[in-house]
Design a protein that fits this description.
With 158 residues, the protein is an alpha/beta fold. The chain contains 6 helices and 5 strands, in the order H-E-H-E-H-H-E-H-E-E-H.
Length: 158
C-alpha cells in the first residue's frame, strides 16, 4: 500500500496536475478519533463525488481546540492517519493544526467540499472556496463522542 499522508506543498503540486487532467477533487475533513462504520460510510459516499478524495485530518493540537474533552484525541494523529490510510475511499491525507481547515480549503480549492448533514451550510469552513458543497446524511447511531461517553460510564478514565 502506498503512503497516503502528504504535505500541503506536495498536495498543491498534485492539485495542479489533477486540474490539468480534469480530475474532480473532493475534500472532507474531521478528527476520526475512533474509526466507526459512520466514518467509513461518509468517506465512501464522499469519494463517489469525484476522482480523488483528500481528507483533512485534525492534528492533535487542533482536536484540543474543538473542546471535545481534556483526554481527546484518544488516538494520536499518526495513529489516526495510519488507520485512515487503509481505507480505499481515501486517496490523500493532509494534517492541519488550526481549529478549522479553512486555510487548507482556500489553498486547495476542491471541486466538491463534503461534510456531514449535522452541519448547516453556514457552519462549513471554507464553503466559499469550493466549487460546490455537499452535506451528507450521517449513518444513524454512530458518534465517536457518544461512544467515548458510553465507555466512560462503563470504565471511567483516570
Amino acid at each position: 500500500m502506498r503512503r497516503k499522508r502528504t504535505s500541503l506543498p506536495r498536495l498543491l503540486a498534485l492539485r495542479r496536475s489533477w486540474a490539468r487532467a480534469e480530475k474532480r477533487v473532493v475534500f472532507t475533513n474531521g478528527v476520526f478519533d475512533i474509526l466507526h462504520p459512520g466514518h467509513v460510510d461518509l468517506l465512501a459516499r464522499a469519494r463517489a463525488f469525484g476522482d480523488i478524495l483528500i481528507l483533512g485530518l485534525n492534528e492533535d493540537v487542533s482536536v484540543r481546540m474543538l473542546g471535545k474533552g481534556p483526554d481527546r484525541p484518544i488516538n494520536p494523529f499518526k495513529d489516526r492517519a495510519a488507520v485512515l490510510e487503509g481505507l480505499a475511499a481515501v486517496d490523500w491525507i493532509v494534517g492541519f493544526r488550526e481549529k478549522t481547515p479553512e486555510a487548507l480549503i482556500r489553498r486547495l480549492r476542491p471541486d466538491v467540499l463534503v461534510k456531514g448533514a449535522d452541519y448547516s451550510p453556514s457552519q462549513v469552513a471554507g464553503v466559499h472556496y469550493a466549487g460546490r458543497v455537499a452535506l451528507l446524511p450521517l449513518k444513524k447511531g454512530y458518534s465517536t463522542t457518544k461512544l467515548v461517553e458510553r465507555l466512560r460510564r462503563v470504565r471511567p478514565v483516570r
